[in-house]
């Protein structure tokens, strides 16, 4: 048996035994896809385990994240720091080998995958980032940004709608350095793909603008290598390499759905070893000659990295300013002096918070050159266009305004990929109600700790005539319930500046800016204290009797109600709370200063569900809210219909106080 086949079988055995020891996992994909994975990692992919964050490494996305033992076996053999003990600890608590790959948890994992289709969409973002930065920084003889993004995908990823959205955009943009290895084993959990998936996938991808290549025998590593090299030559189209494999290859479960998501069983592993002519019955055995072979392969990657470093040092000497800017991009440097300046916080008129956000985007675009983003075909409404920047397209990779098209699912996942690549500050936008389409990817932003900026406009029944299909009700509660996500719903232009300040300075948390369609007045007392999440904007006169808490467009109503109640001699405090999450980060002393525990007469005012507000208003408080869907009509009439008015706030306050 030659060393390459022995290495492939080592990957297979390690993967199967890891799943068997855990009594949980997915052995089928690793057994079938090991040849393509080995071929890619050992013969085609540019990477260095001694420098896993090398900016010009090829990226690898295991979109079929359930096959995680395949990736862990590769990371072990390629010496990324996973030990045999880590392989033995697959799916165990606090191990480095969790059930699905987790970015930031395991060295060498470029992205968290598991929800099918997300990985392909992430990869599109990575390829977009590479293309944009290459156009910006590369010079003749100095291709400092020059790498491929590889995906290993299964049938399940290609069934999910998000993959088609993302692949469509990739074809439109002509992302030639994106290569998908399609593990076509024709089996899913329920059985043959013929049960629910009979379309001609290659023809679909050709229609999407991709090059399609075929490998009829998934064990033919020479053919796999050749097709990858062919794909690399085509820089005008992304490539799909259809590789026919057998799920659970070599085991008695080969070709069966039972190979997908359950351990093989000890007897079947014995049979697997016999079929593969494995010489040892010891568990987790790695032949010494495989170890030596891997050291030779690893050395190639180390030398490639060293050659790049030599080239980059020459680049720095010849283009010092550009090199400095490149490093600023990679370090995600932010102009803090500007964020603290009066200009950033000052506006000359009242405006909707979506319009204020548009002003701020354009101010930031002049100061943050790696700001890169756009909208799901709603830029004129979302106010996300950078006026002094060109559009990103296959003909202008230097452009910064992205036209995502009507593809919310893919947009959010692409934003994650843009950030994961490094060097890019991404943002994306749609109407808040359509964040439902984005939720899966936004959840992964939080899980991975990616400070992606989501601009979510048309935030309430203030949308008006478009009616309940376009009026968000429960979405605020949904994202407030999501761990490690900052919801920021500003009440005016200055609070919008605070939201953007937080978005630009966040290190490990995505930020959702929830913005109004309608013009909102600037309110006395708003400003930088909004960064505390909740703060007093109207102080009571004398004894404190009642606290009104508002967010977004409803804060002005709470403020006016506070004034009206104050004229009646009632001590009313008005609190703006644009972000529950930021408020919870404050000290207990600060929080009780804003919301004294002995003041139980509290009213929240928000044109959305009351769910969650009792945390701040207590059992004796009143939530003025909307716990039904909206309606179609002029926005001012809708606020009256749903009793989100100054008069109703005053009425409820008097009831509470009586």
TrEMBL record:
> Which keywords does the record carry?
Calcium, Coiled coil, Magnesium, Metal-binding, Thiamine pyrophosphate, Transferase
E.C. code: 2.2.1.1
Q: Name one GO cellular component term.
A: cytosol
Q: Where is the active site?
A: 408
The coenzyme or cofactor needed here is:
Mg(2+); thiamine diphosphate; Co(2+); Ca(2+)
GO biological process assignments? pentose-phosphate shunt
Q: Which Pfam families match?
A: Transket_pyr, Transketolase_C_1, Transketolase_N
Q: Where does thiamine diphosphate bind?
A: 66, 114-116, 156, 185, 260, 434
- What does the record say about how the cofactor binds? Binds 1 Mg(2+) ion per subunit. Can also utilize other divalent metal cations, such as Ca(2+), Mn(2+) and Co(2+). Binds 1 thiamine pyrophosphate per subunit. During the reaction, the substrate forms a covalent intermediate with the cofactor.
Site (described: Important for catalytic activity): 26, 260
What this protein is reported to do is described as: Catalyzes the transfer of a two-carbon ketol group from a ketose donor to an aldose acceptor, via a covalent intermediate with the cofactor thiamine pyrophosphate.
Membership in a protein family? Belongs to the transketolase family.
Q: What's the protein here called?
A: Transketolase
Gene symbol of the encoding locus: tkt
């Amino acid at each position: 048996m030659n060393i390459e086949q022995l290495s492939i079988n080592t990957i297979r055995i390690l993967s199967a035994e890891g799943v068997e020891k855990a009594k949980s996992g997915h052995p089928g994909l690793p057994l079938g896809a090991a040849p393509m994975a080995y071929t890619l990692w050992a013969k085609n992919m540019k990477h260095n385990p001694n420098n896993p964050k090398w900016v010009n490494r090829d990226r690898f996305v295991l979109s079929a994240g359930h096959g995680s033992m395949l990736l862990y076996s590769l990371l072990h053999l390629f010496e990324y720091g996973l030990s045999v003990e880590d392989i033995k600890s697959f799916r165990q608590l606090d191990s480095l080998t969790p059930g699905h790959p987790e970015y930031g948890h395991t060295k060498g994992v470029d992205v968290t995958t598991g929800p099918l289709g997300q990985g392909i969409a992430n990869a599109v973002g990575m390829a977009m980032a590479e293309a944009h930065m290459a156009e910006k920084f590369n010079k003749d003889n100095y291709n400092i940004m020059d790498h491929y993004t590889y995906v290993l995908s299964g049938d399940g990823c290609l069934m999910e709608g998000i993959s088609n959205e993302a692949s469509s955009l990739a074809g439109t943009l002509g992302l030639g350095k994106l290569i998908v290895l399609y593990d076509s084993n024709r089996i899913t959990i329920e059985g043959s793909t013929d049960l629910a998936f009979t379309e001609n996938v290659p023809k679909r991808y050709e229609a999407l603008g991709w090059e399609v290549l075929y490998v009829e025998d998934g064990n033919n590593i020479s053919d796999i290598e050749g097709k990858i090299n062919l794909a690399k030559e085509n820089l005008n189209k992304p490539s799909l390499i259809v590789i026919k494999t057998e799920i659970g290859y070599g085991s008695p479960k080969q070709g069966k759905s039972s190979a997908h998501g359950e351990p093989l069983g000890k007897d079947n592993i014995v049979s697997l070893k016999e079929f593969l002519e494995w010489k040892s019955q010891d568990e987790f055995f790695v032949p010494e000659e495989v170890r030596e072979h891997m050291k030779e392969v690893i050395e190639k990657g180390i030398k490639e990295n060293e050659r790049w470093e030599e080239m980059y040092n020459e680049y720095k000497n010849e283009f010092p300013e550009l090199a400095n800017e490149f490093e600023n991009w990679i370090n995600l440097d932010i102009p803090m002096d500007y964020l603290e300046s009066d200009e950033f916080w000052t506006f000359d008129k009242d405006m909707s918070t979506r319009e204020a956000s548009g002003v701020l985007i354009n101010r930031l675009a002049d100061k943050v050159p790696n700001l890169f983003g756009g909208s799901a075909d709603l830029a004129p409404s979302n106010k996300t266009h950078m006026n002094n920047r060109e559009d990103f397209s296959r003909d202008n990779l230097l452009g910064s305004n992205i036209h995502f098209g009507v593809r919310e699912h893919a947009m959010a996942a692409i934003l994650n990929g843009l950030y994961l690549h490094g060097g890019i500050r991404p943002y994306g936008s749609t109407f808040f109600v359509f964040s439902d389409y984005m939720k899966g990817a936004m959840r992964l932003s939080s899980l991975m700790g990616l400070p992606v900026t989501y601009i979510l406009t048309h935030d309430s029944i203030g949308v008006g005539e478009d009616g309940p299909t376009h009026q968000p009700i429960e979405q605020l509660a949904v994202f407030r319930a999501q761990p490690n996500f900052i919801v920021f719903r500003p009440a005016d232009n200055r609070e919008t500046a605070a939201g953007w300040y937080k978005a630009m300075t966040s290190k490990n948390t995505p930020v959702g800016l929830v913005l109004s369609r309608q013009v909102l007045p600037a309110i006395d007392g708003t400003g930088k204290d909004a960064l505390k999440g909740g703060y007093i904007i109207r102080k009571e006169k004398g004894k404190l009797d009642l606290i009104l808490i508002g967010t977004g467009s409803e804060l002005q109503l709470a403020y006016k109600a506070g004034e009206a109640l104050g004229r009646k001699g009632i001590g009313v405090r008005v609190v703006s709370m644009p972000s529950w999450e930021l408020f919870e980060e404050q000290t207990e002393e600060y929080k009780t200063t804003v919301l004294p525990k002995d003041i139980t007469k509290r009213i929240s005012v928000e044109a959305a569900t009351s769910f969650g507000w009792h945390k701040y208003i207590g059992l004796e408080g009143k939530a003025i809210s909307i716990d039904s869907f909206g309606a179609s009509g002029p926005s001012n009439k809708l606020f009256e219909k749903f009793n989100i008015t100054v008069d109703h706030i005053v009425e409820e306050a008097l009831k509470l106080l009586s």
